[in-house]
Amino acid sequence: MEEKFKLENQLCFKLYTASRLLTQAYHPLLGEHGLTYPQYLVLLVLWEKDAQPVNDIAKRLLLETNTVTPLLKRMEAEGIVARRKGKEDARQMIVTLTKKGRDLQKKLTYVPETVGNAVICESVTPETVPGLFGMLDDIIKQLKQ
Amino acid sequence: MEEKFKLENQLCFKLYTASRLLTQAYHPLLGEHGLTYPQYLVLLVLWEKDAQPVNDIAKRLLLETNTVTPLLKRMEAEGIVARRKGKEDARQMIVTLTKKGRDLQKKLTYVPETVGNAVICESVTPETVPGLFGMLDDIIKQLKQ
DNA sequence: TATATTTGCATCGTGAACGATATAAATAAC
DNA sequence: GTTATTTATATCGTTCACGATGCAAATATA
Predict the structure, then answer these.
(1) Is 90 exceeded by the pLDDT of residue A2?
(2) Which DSSP helix (H) or strand (E) runs through A79?
(3) B45 with B55: CB under 8 angstroms?
(4) pTM of this prediction?
(5) Per-residue exposure over B36-55, b if at least 16 CB sit within 10 Å of its own CB, e if not
(6) Which residues, 6+ apart, have CB-to-CB distance to A35 below 8 Å?
């Protein structure tokens, strides 16, 4: 009754905290360019493949469209992306990078390393990270059902 | 320029996704009792030690008081906790469990196991979890500075 | 072809997170 | 003892997350 309810034994709390703190590490780097962390994730998706419907972006990030839609509209207002109706399927909204959105990639070159360096420590090194990735991937796969 | 921006190489995205999905696994279990996941975390803290000031709860969860205060007020409105001014230090708000809050522990006995079982998979087993915990703890310690 | 269902996106409401700021009480400095 | 600073909490504004619901376009079915 005691041990299982201890905060230190909760995987979820550790994931939640690590996620929050690591996101906070991105904040000053991204904020300088007017970006939030979820917006940065959208850019990662679009830098890999431009011109995607809302649904594909949401699926890639494992988010719902009702989370992504307002986020994209804010990015559109910032001039980072453009949204236009799909030609073959009029229900789709195709999201494309603007020049400003594309140019941000160069400006943010240092971000992955900077954050990567910030987490390097005793048990988290280039050698152990693949194992950590594997476990997180398995957890995600498991919970996606 | 390519690899480092790939979504699959971002530790933060994996932590963020795993955290969200695992929190979602709690949702039906907690929702049945009118609780959210952060509210459940507050209960874990108070079940360990009742009658704590807002600040201690926030520190334990590594959250800011401006996150915890409204959360506690919602819990107070639900009759799960009570808040009273500190006697020796009138600035403090001491948060205590109500009977309803204490009784929830018995009603939620099955929650840790249920969620624990939900994440068991190939690379995440009782043998590997301690290693995962260790890495997450190190990441958290590192980012707390 | 008319109707039903599915799909893609959007809107709405609620509850976090969190930076910025405010306020009052406690403590320190003078 | 008066003033300055720190500390504990609260308020406000913005941006996610996400369940519930709505709507229009596409597809399936009758």
Answers:
(1) no
(2) none
(3) no
(4) 0.95
(5) bbbbbbbbbbbbeeeebbbe
(6) A43, A80, A104
Diameter of chain B measured on Cα atoms: 59
Closest nucleotide to the alpha carbon of A55, via C1'? C8
Note the CA–C1' distance, B86 to C4, in angstroms.
63
What's the burial of A23, exposed, middle or buried (CB within 10 Å: 0-12/13-18/19+)?
Answer: buried
Give the pLDDT confidence of A99-109 residue by residue, as tens digits.
999 999 999 99
Cβ A142–B45 below 8 Å, yes or no?
Answer: no
| pLDDT score recorded for residue B19 | 98
Candidates A66, A64, A75; CA nearest to A97 is A75
- DSSP states of B25-84 as a string? HHHHHHHTTT--HHHHHHHHHHHHS-SEEHHHHHHHHT--HHHHHHHHHHHHHTTSEEEE
Phi/psi at B77 (5° precision): -60, -30
Measured CA to CA in angstroms, residue B46 lies from A99, B64, B100, B106 at distances of 51, 17, 13, 14
DSSP A34: T
3-state per-residue secondary structure call for B86-110: CCCCCCCEEEEECHHHHHHHHHCCH
